[in-house]
Amino acid sequence: MNQVYIGLGSNLGQSAKQIQAACHSLASLSETKLIRCSSLYQSLPMGPQDQPNYVNAVVLIETELSPENLLQQTQQIESQHGRVRKSNRWGPRTLDLDILLYGQQQLDKEQLTIPHIGMKQREFVLYPLFEIAPELILPCGEKLSDLVLTCPINGLQIMSD
Ligand code: ROI
Questions:
Q1: Rounded CA gap, 6 and 59, in Å?
Q2: pLDDT digit string (tens) for 54-67?
Q3: Is the pLDDT assigned to residue 9 strictly greater than 70?
Q4: Cβ–ligand 1 contact at 118 (below 6 Å)
Q5: Contact yes or no for 9/55 (Cβ under 8 A)
Q6: Ordered domains of the chain (ranges, CATH)
Q7: Residue whose CA is closest, atom 9 of ligand 1?
Q8: Which residue's alpha carbon is nearest to atom 3 within ligand 1?
Q9: How far apart are CA 8 and CA 100, in angstroms?
Q10: What is the best residue among 6, 8, 11 to mutate for testing ligand 1's pocket, by most ligand atoms within 8 Å of CB?
Q11: Does the pLDDT at position 87 exceed 80?
């Protein structure tokens, strides 16, 4: 079993519902168990500011799917949830699923880089991840708790439901 952390984000449509539905979809993947879900967080857009705030979360799954196979599955979930891939890389989206960590593996392929590029600087990844895995050590050897300490919170807020 591989422990895999996935980041979820949405800033179009009913974002909180999208994220919750995506968790259910992840839970029902073959050879996969949903282990833990963070709270939902509201975050300010990184990148162009003329887009709505985001809802973000992080989940832990255990899976036998390979990284490539899991990527296919997460992309399928994205399109089932109305994601339209646009050339505008940093634009708004109904659902974004990012494979953040796949066990201690490091992977650098055209389609897939693990650990996810940029995760170490993103408060909307680090804080939800810390909520569900406070003891985590990244494949580079850095402690998640150290990264969180040096990452500005930038308006990130836990959403109450
Ligand atoms: N900004 C926030 N706050 N949350 C995201 O999930 C997110 N995703 C993105 C970009 C456009 C980089 N900005 C984001 O892809």
A1: 5
A2: 999 999 999 999 99
A3: yes
A4: no
A5: yes
A6: 2-158 (3.30.70.560)
A7: 90
A8: 45
A9: 10
A10: 11
A11: no
**pLDDT tens, residue by residue, 65-75:** 999 999 999 99
Token representation of residue 14: 């009913």
Tell me the average pLDDT across 112-126: 97
Q: Does the annotation mark 98 as catalytic?
A: yes
State the average pLDDT over residues 23-36.
98
10 lines ligand 1 (CB under 6 A): no
- Residues 23 and 58: their CA atoms lie apart, in Å, by 10
DSSP summary character for residue 159:
P
pTM: predicted TM-score of the whole model, two decimal places: 0.96
DSSP type of residue 58: E
85: number of Cβ within 10 Å? 10
Please name which of 144, 149, 146, 127 lies closest in space to residue 58, comparing C-alpha atoms: 127
Concerning whether 122 is annotated as a catalytic residue, the answer is no
83 is catalytic: yes
| Sign of the torsion formed by the C-alpha atoms of 80, 86, 89 and 92 | negative
**Token pair 């591989």 is at which residue?**
2
Determine if ligand 1 sits within 6 Å of the CB of residue 47.
Answer: yes
